[in-house]
Write a structure and sequence with these properties.
324 residues, Rossmann fold, 2 domains, 9 helices, 16 strands, 25% strand, elongated, binds flavin-adenine dinucleotide
Length: 324
């Protein structure tokens, strides 16, 4: 029997993140196609209940220690590397998120094994694997074949539906001892929560989101007017926030907020994976972009290949006309 497929389960503040279930669904498929076992590996403090909920895995290995309460990459990667050296999985799937980001790099480095990163999908092909990955910030897609195993694979959120990774089955659960160093060069001091006071974009039903294509803060009025007419708020891509057009609380994406409005209008946003990760589950996505090949059109339900500075004033007039 080939070595196990591992899914590194991601927990934070007492809960498992959705991406854990997405990876379980992906890992299940790979494991079944190879005739291998699927094992979930969970580090945390007081996590036996969480371990038992990972029913799609054949077995859940969990290491319980206060040292694993917070996701510190230095700590987690040492523990996981020690476990992997002992158990010898052949494929290790790690989610690419803010929480697990450090593990994606540190774990293969500690194990001295290859990393295939930014993968949207992975399939068992013959005796090996083939991965579909994004490169150049999502502008291109490549197919990558790991030439040797074990291999660590960084998987982007959205590779599978989370629902497909849930199961009411009770997995075999095994407590394992993993080294939990008290000092490792990095100490988490705490979290800085965003200041209250600004609009909560996660609660809006309509978002008009602006990107670098807006071309300047002076044009923000256009987005504000459209958002107000539609009863929503203005959100932004990271560059729009980095340039100081809007506060950090309005940022959508990997390092911003996860939003699921009824309507998401993306103005001058290219659709980089880090942005799409935060808005792809909006019920209706409309994108306005001068570049007909912009990746945002891959997730948009309606696309307008026009200059937003010309299109939005016309749209505003049409909405006003419709309202009156
Ligand atoms: C670890 C990490 C985390 C990240 N987190 C986030 C995140 O949380 N959120 C996020 O958004 N990004 C994030 N990024 C950055 C991300 O990779 C992209 O760089 C960013 O999303 C691009 O923003 P943009 O689409 O506004 O700009 P660009 O990629 O520069 O795109 C601008 C778009 O505007 C179009 N355009 C130009 N002029 C016009 C016009 N007049 N009318 C219409 N369209 C026009 C262009 O064709 C282009 O497609 C992250 C990156 C990393 C590495």
């Amino acid at each position: 029997m080939p070595g196990a497929v591992w899914v590194i389960a991601e927990q934070w503040r007492g809960g498992l993140s959705e991406v854990t279930y997405e990876l379980l669904a992906l890992g299940r498929q790979i494991a079944d196609d190879r005739g291998a076992a699927l094992e979930a590996v969970l580090l945390g403090s007081g996590v036996v209940g969480l371990a038992e909920s990972l029913g799609l895995a054949d077995r859940v290995l969990y290491a319980d220690s206060p040292a694993f309460a917070e996701p510190v990459g230095e700590v987690g990667s040492r523990a996981l590397a020690a476990l992997a050296t002992e158990r010898k999985p052949t494929v290790v799937l790690v989610p690419i998120t803010n929480v697990s980001w450090d593990l994606v790099g540190l774990l293969p480095a500690r194990l001295g094994v290859p990393l295939v990163n930014f993968c949207m999908d992975v399939a068992a092909v013959g005796d090996g694997l083939e991965a579909r990955c994004l490169v150049f910030g999502g502008k291109m897609e490549v197919r990558a074949v790991p030439e040797s195993e074990p291999v660590v694979i960084g998987v982007l959120p959205g590779a599978r539906r989370a629902d497909a990774g849930r199961s009411t089955k009770r997995p075999e659960v095994e407590p394992v001892a993993a080294p939990a160093p008290e000092t490792c060069g990095v100490r988490l001091l705490g979290y800085e929560e965003p200041e209250a006071g600004d609009i909560d974009i996660t609660q809006q039903e309509v978002l008009v989101s602006v990107g670098r294509g807006l071309q300047g803060q002076a044009n923000l009025d256009l987005a504000e007017e459209l958002a107000e007419l539609l009863g929503g708020a203005v959100s932004a891509s990271r560059p729009a926030v980095d340039m100081g057009w809007l506060p950090m609380t309005r940022q959508v994406g990997k390092s911003g907020m996860l939003v699921k409005p009824k309507l998401y209008i993306a103005l001058g946003i290219s659709g980089a994976p880090e942005h799409v990760e935060g808005m792809k589950d909006a019920a209706l996505i409309v994108a306005v972009n001068t570049d007909p090949g912009a990746p945002i059109f891959n997730v948009a339900h309606y696309g307008v290949a026009e200059d937003l500075l010309e299109f939005v004033p016309v749209l505003i007039d049409k909405v006003k006309e419709h309202k009156s």
